[in-house]
Fold each of these.
Amino acid sequence: MAKKFRPLHDRLLVKRVEAEEKSKGGIIIPDSAKEKPVEGKVIAVGNGKTLENGERRALELKVGDLVLFGKYSGSEIKIDGEEHIILREDDVLGVVEA
């Protein structure tokens, strides 16, 4: 049975987008030389950040957004054998738009 995961507060569940297997020049990059991608797709979002006055601010990001994040940001977890990252919305550097 597939597990469901719902992040709390201003957190996001992100799945990394796989890196290219070849360089632009056509050179195949071995697994040992690849860096973990810093781009991912938002899989789930929390219900917002609670402000000091008690109000809740909704997140700007939504499920399906393609985002860039810092190399060492977030916490890595496995859900149903697949690697994901839990990030705070503040850890996201930007949204990739088509």
Amino acid sequence: MTATMREIEFRDAVREAMSEEMRRDMRVMLIGEEVAQYNGAYKVSRGMLDEFGPRRVIDTPISESGFAGMAIGAAMLGLRPIVEFMSWSFSLVAADPILNNAPKMLYMSGGQYGCPVVFRGNDGAGGQLGSTHSWAVEGLFSNVPGLKMAIPSNPADAKGLMKTAIRDDDPVFFLESERLLSLKGDVPEGEHLIPFGQARVARVGRDCTLVSFGRPVHFCLEAADALAREGIDCEVLDMRTIRPLDAGAIVRSVRRTGACVVVDQSWSFGSPGSEVAALVHRECFDDLDNHVHRVHSADVPAPYSYDLEQEYLPNTRRVCEAVRACLYRA
């Protein structure tokens, strides 16, 4: 039976996923700064305190290391916490529990203790928040084995990936973009899960493969529209998750198009984009007509100035320039 679709905002899709899973499983709980009485700093948890009460929607002190560690302990003892970081920039003070404990617990306990916890919050430059509040942490955190990482680009994927994340027995880092929270899109009612490691072909094309995830997917789609007017037909892959990464989808696409541009809001050094480029060069070397081109955030701290921030981030113009260079049309 076809699911009923409604147009809702990204933030509402995340809340719907969390609420549905909390109704389904009494072990699921939400904790974080201002998630309860204030309805979330970005109103993602609006109404959840009223429905689930203060034992399952819990306001915490301003101590990311403390409440992240508490959630890991709760997960080890059978609960399934969702931890909201108001910003992933603030997760840096919780690096020890979320990177040194959660991903390693199953391994170090010889399989005795898992860590089914979801860490979620806003990632990347959020619009004039300055250098210390604009971290895109995927380049830092995806390096660690034992965790999974989902980065949705649209409301339907936000719901489907969040429900999958909550049910997963491994720690999941769920990266949202503040700039996408008000984005509207069609989302299925009720049960809607998207498997991890399954990319979405956001646009079919024949000349060049654009590989991206999260907010930069929209820059790729805008660039593909602009390049189509020049006779360049781009395929856009939305990876959805980068831990695990759907390597097969990338390889199949690049073998058809013969060209690849990776668009990643991380800094370029040691980034997911670096890993994708290495993968393509290894698996598609004989299919490529040029090396993989990459579009990243500039290798500087995020600026506060609005105009500088737009230049700092990947954008439609820079994606178009990379595709033309990759196809020798610069």
Amino acid sequence: MVSAWGSRGAFVGLFAGLIVLPHLLSFSQKEVAVFLVINVLVVVSYRLLTLTGEWSLAHVVITGVGAYASTLLAKRLGVPVPVAMPLGAAVAALTAYVLSFPLFRMKAFYFLIGSFAAGEVIRLCWKRFREPFGGPKGIKLIPSVPDIDIGIVDVAFFDPVNYYYLCLVVVTASVVVLRRLEQSRIGLTFHAIHWQDKLAESVGVDTRRYRTLAFVIASFFGGLAGALLAHYLGTVNPNQFDVESMVYVLVWVIVGGTATIYGPILGVVALTVVNEIVLRELGVDQARPLIYGAILIASILFLPDGLESLGPKMKRAFVRARERSDRGGTRG
């Protein structure tokens, strides 16, 4: 009972902290908080694909597909932004479904390289065609989320605080859905395919179908993150979704861990804090790739299961220390 109340209290405290957080930050830090919340959705959606044992280098590009699709729907076709966002995410999911036919003929390293090639083809199309993608400069003056004005309530979403709360609601709902999905029979099948794909096939599981399902769902939520980003920045271009951005996503996920849904969240939060508070304040932001690389190597060497494993390790060490102390007291 105490443990249940403790977990509930920690959750309530965390949620209260997230609500209060933007009011304690400077303007630039508020914008960082918006990007952080969006990145949480990127890494959590990416983790869903890793549950089947596959790692993709196209996830950031798929996020860009959601951004471009939502932008074109809103700017060129006049679709309301709240409708364009989920439609853009659906286009990202459809793109993933089409890519799944060639990509899932490959596995492991070959899938990784194939996904990189597929992503680069899409990104280079954005750079090559000025119509409708805007070429290398991308698309500007993207419609923003419309303000809410119902008399006593007037919410303008160009304000980073209000957009932060919008993203927090969308991302929280998405994380809950992804967590429930992982705990369902489908999620358990994903895990089974990861660890024993041949055994799963022997009992009638269509592993390719389930890998495709994970890829499509992960891409939907990744595309939703891209749509949130595009309509906040007001611009979208191919350089936002290059391989360097994908490497950062990989580092966030690996450093945080993939055993639970909270691992990637820990990774992106910890490294964002390192980047914004340590690197930027020390004026060594240009060294970020070098420092991220060092953090990644240190994590693989000393925390191969990610930051999420640190808590259980500390708990086990504390229990062992207490047991040794009790035995020493008994002998005395």
Amino acid sequence: MVYLVSYDLNRPGQDYGGLYDAIKALGDWCHPLESTWLIDTTLGASPIAERLRANIDRNDSLLVIGVTQDYAGWLPKEVWEWIRGRSAALSGIGR
């Protein structure tokens, strides 16, 4: 399943290298926007959020949500290729 991970990190100057490493450790990933990642993983949204929570501050915000085949936007070609390459992993297959 592909999940979108998005966050607001509210502490200026904070080193969030641990968060980025934790995201990358979840599975195959794509980082299309500054505070947005796409993760192809066998984990669900809650376990993903729990693993990432240890790497953000209490005043930060985090969203983990499954990605469907209904998507649109303006992104670099390689990002669209990453997304399209995982079409079988996107929810909504077989509806």
